[in-house]
Amino acid sequence: MSSYAASLGLLPTDPTFWMPLLLLTLTSIMVLGTIIFDGFDMGVGLLLPFAPASHRQALMTSLAPWRSVNETWVLLTFALAIASFPFAFGAILSQLYLPILLCMLGVVTRSVSFEFRARSAITMRSFWLVVFCIGAFLSALGLGLILAAFAAGYQQDATNIGFILFVALCAMAACMLMGSCWLLMRWEGEMRVLAARWASHAVRWVAAGMTAVSIMLAMANPAILYKWTHIDNLIPAGLLWGVMLFCFVWLEIYFKRVRQNVTPHRLWLPFVLCVVLLALMVLGILYSLFPFMVLDEITLWDATPSVLSMQLILAALVIVTPVIVLRHLSNYSLLFSPAGARL
Q: Domain spans of the chain?
């Protein structure tokens, strides 16, 4: 990092240098939190059409403790990104207007449908369940389009359109994988076997999507290819791919055993391995793009506001984040608890 500081004419201890790095780290954590916790929410919504009709309403009800938590992650992530990197967000928004609009429209649709379903007559609950599925589809599609646009360097020619659509499908599969792993923890019997079956299909799409994103990142920019293939980085890159391969293989074996009605142990482990895979994906994208917020155009330090503004943002995070975490800590503690919804 000292070389980056020297190239900017700054010291590593200068707030102008390290505050943008801290904000990028916090924003990345918020993005990962959104993908994980809103991901299984979207995943359950995407899986509802494939679930037995007799269980769909119960699946929706089982999401209730986490709904407000998931909404907080999404909104706080977008607010933090806009406030922390205003000079880059204008350029990014011009390229990602439609995906971000789809993502936020899906969030609103899911929130409205969930609340209306809980307060509507029994005859209308099936309608609101369909609306929730549509909202989950829009949110997952938006996230997938955002990821694909970053990987493709915002290029939208005929060749990249196919790649963008493929990555969007893989992003929806990632949400379905998270949702399936969550259902596998929370349910028993037929639903657990179904969840393992859905997850075994989704994990292959996720593996294909992560591979496609990695290849596209390397092809989109020679500097990114150099980063990953330089001799100094071969060992870290090999370790990263080795860990990802281990996670994919282990998940495939685990889901196969559950489908064969073998009593599984450590029901929380597939969900944790999914979190590891998503964290490595976010880390890989950050490493590939660093130090740029808009590749080859706007660096991290060009994108941030004044030191005073960054201090205010960090002060707000210090106050807001613990309140949110403490408020919903009991709900998160239930995530891996075996005392959830059961058949």
A: 2-333
DSSP string, 171-197: HHHHHHHHHHHHHHHH--THHHHHHHH
User: Mean pLDDT of all residues in the chain?
Assistant: 82
Q: What are phi and psi of 9, to 5 degrees?
A: 75, 30
Residue 213 to residue 281: CA distance in whole angstroms: 9
Of the candidates 132, 290, 107, 140, which has an alpha carbon nearest to the alpha carbon of residue 206?
140
CA distance 268 to 185: 6
Check residue 177 and give its pLDDT.
93
Give me the residues paired with residue 299 across strands.
292
Q: Give the model's pLDDT for residue 325.
A: 65
Question: What span, in angstroms and rounded, lies between the C-alpha atoms of 114 and 125?
Answer: 9
pLDDT at 8 over 50: yes
Q: What is the C-alpha to C-alpha distance for residues 136 and 46, in angstroms, rounded to an integer?
A: 6
Phi, psi for residue 293 in degrees, rounded to 5: -90, -40
Residues 6+ apart with CB under 8 A from 296: 221, 223
Burial class (CB in 10 A: 0-12, 13-18, 19+), 111: middle
Whether residue 99 has a cis bond before it, omega within 30° of 0: no
